[in-house]
Each structure stands twice: as structure tokens, then as C-alpha cells.
Amino acid sequence: MMGPVSLRKYFTFAGRLHRRGFIAAYGLPFLVLGALPGLLLPHGPTQVALESLVLLLVLPGIARRLHDVGLSLWVFLAIYGISPLVLALQTTGMFGDRRQLALLLSNVPLLTCVLALFVVRGSRGPNRFGDEPGSADPGA
User: Fold this and answer.
1) Cα dihedral: 110, 134, 122, 23 (round 10)
2) Can you tell me the distance from the alpha carbon of 58 to that of 60, in angstroms, rounded to the nearest whole number?
């Protein structure tokens, strides 16, 4: 049975986190609190503030889940850096009047990365980020 992730473990970037713990504690809240309002609210300061807050709250989980598959948080930050590039292209008029298309495309790299963490299996045994998380402790 999966127990709750302690607040101290929730906000740490060190160590590894298995899929089940990531999905329950970070992934689903990210999709519900971050992605859905991003699709439902008009683009503006409120939406950007909400999405930024949610991203900051789930960033430790993303880091630890990436650690579980043997990758650094820098991989996610590089992927996330594509989003502003798409929005910058939108200002050139490349998308014409299709501003919503540019906003949607800017979120594709972020959502793809998070959803990939739902399905990618963690590395077996210890890796450079620590021991394999035990199934008894979903926050490990």
C-alpha cells in the first residue's frame, strides 16, 4: 500500500523516485493543477502564475524521477527551454493569427517529458543518483 510522501521528501531534489510515487504525488497534481487550467483559462498573467507555481511545486519530483532513469534535471530544463523558443517564433508572425496554436505547441515539450516519466522504467539497481527506490516507500 502506498503511503503519503512526507513534506520533507516532497521538496528534496536528491535521490530517486519510482513511477508510482511520481504519478501519485507529482504527475497527476501537475496535470490537474497545471495543464488543465492552462488549456481552460485564457492566456494571461493568472494562467502563467498558476502554471509557474505548479511547475515549481513538482520540479523536485521531476528531478528525482529523472534521477531514477539515470538522467539529470538539466535534461528537463533543456527540454523546457524549447517552450519560450516556440513563443518567440510566434512573435515573428510565423503562426499568423493562430496564437492559440503557438501556446499549445509551447507546452508540448513539457507535457511530453512529464508523460514520458509516467511510463519509462527506472534503472535497475543503484545509479549515480542513489540506490533503487524500494517499493515499500513511494517517496524514496
Assistant:
1) -30
2) 6
Per-residue pLDDT of 3-52, as tens digits, reads 455 778 889 999 999 999 999 998 888 888 777 776 777 666 777 777 77
pTM score, two decimals?
0.77
Burial pattern 22-52, b for ≥16 Cβ within 10 A else e, equals: bbbbbbeebbebbbeebeeeeeeeebeeebe
d(CA 97, CA 94): 9
Residue (of 69, 64, 58) closest to 120 by Cα position: 69
Angle at 115 between CA 54 and CA 46, to 5 degrees: 25
Rounded to the nearest integer, the mean pLDDT of the chain is 79
To the nearest 10°, report the CA torsion of 74, 76, 78, 81: -130
